[in-house]
Known about the structure:
By secondary structure, the protein is an all-alpha fold.
Amino acid sequence: MTNYFLLRFFKEHDHRFRHRVRILFGGSEEIALNDIKWFVANIGAPYQAIVTDGPFPVNNIQKGLLDVDVELPVGPQLPNGQKTHMAPAWVSIARMRKADRLPPMVV
């Protein structure tokens, strides 16, 4: 919706672009950017980009990402999906015997 309102704003203010305007929706940006890599390889990189997935949708870079593994002594499994930087659709926690727990991890 942000993209729609952004284009509507430009139209209502009679803004004329010097370059072609396209809306791209990334489908694998949280994994490996394969869709964007394909687009750049086959269509070409845009002259300028506006990223509309943040509170203030004007930037030409993505923020940093920290990917860490955390082990908690709460159970043998804690599935969280396969994508980083995204909230899982579901989570399950299983309790385990104290003797089977891993030692605490020191960071």
